[in-house]
Amino acid sequence: MINLNHLKSSFVPYQRGSILLLALVMILVLSLVGVSAVSLTNAHLKIAENQQRQFDVQLDAENIATCRVANYPNANAAVVALCGGMVAETTDIDLSSEDDQCVAQGYIVGTGSDAGNDLDCDWNETRKNDGHHSFSGSKNCQNSSYTSTWHPHLHHMSGNRELWINGDVTIEHCGGCFKDHASEINYTGSIVNSCTKGGYSWPSVVKKNKVSVAQFNLAAGGTPATEKEYYSHVELTVTSTHEASGAKATVVKGFKFRGTASSSPEKTKCGIGVDADPKNVASDPLLPQVGQVRELYSYLLID
Fold it and tell me: What is the DSSP string of 6-60?
């Protein structure tokens, strides 16, 4: 006959501590699940934080680009302050250089006129074979561009020694008497191919002032001229970078601007040669007035 009490008592020692082991295994599993959940939560928070920073730099770049396009071509201190106030203090902004913004330019057929034929201000110039140009009087005015393969002798003039030129100015040699006497050169176009001989730079005593045709007309008197108008295809690039994380976004906006010679980008910055003229284009009914801007395209580059 089997003694059940003996069997029961004989198995009891082998079952002691099993509940503790099972509890420890469950605690370990729950701990791993908890650590995994915390890590996953931190990863999600990090992703959300990075997404927020990326969104912020995109928004900053878009705001700057929109503001600068709306105020083009003005880029004075007031505009810089206005547009700069639209971004966070932790964001660095980088704008494309003005020299790289213009893509193309065209002359709007039928706009503007050449300078008047009769000016109250004369052009008193004596040219020599050696390239020296001597001037007299206190003010000289010319309806076209001025080119000197050497330099003008302005020290023979009196008063403020002013040249008023409705066009471009080229003075190839900026040394000699040209650099030693105070004078003033006013022009409606650009200073091109100047100071290319002798190793001289533009002298500080000679003021160079870019003026509008209206200012030229006022100084020269006589029959007034009107400024020609141009369409310029401009592409503005704005890059915004978060200082701490390095998150970066670039916004590119291309737009069309209607301006005069004095308000439009210089033709040489639009891929047009010094001796070339912008191609003729028809007037755009969507841009009928000087100073207007029409956005052509916009896209985002994410780094």
Answer: HHHHHHHHHHTTHHHHHHHHHHHHHHHHHHHHHHHHHHHHHHHHHHHHHHHHHHH
Distance between CA 122 and CA 100 in Å, rounded?
39
Burial of 261 from C-beta contacts in 10 A (0-12 / 13-18 / 19+): buried
Question: What ranges do the domains of the chain cover?
Answer: 49-111+227-302, 125-220
Torsion sign across C-alpha atoms 211, 215, 220, 224: positive
Element (H, E) at 218: helix 213-220
Assess contact for 276 and 106: CB atoms under 8 A.
Answer: no
Distance CA 166, CA 163 (A): 10
Q: Report pLDDT for 225.
A: 67
Say whether pTM exceeds 0.85: no
Query: Could you read off the pLDDT of 226-278 as tens digits, one per residue?
Result: 788 999 999 999 999 888 888 899 999 999 999 998 889 988 899 888 778 89
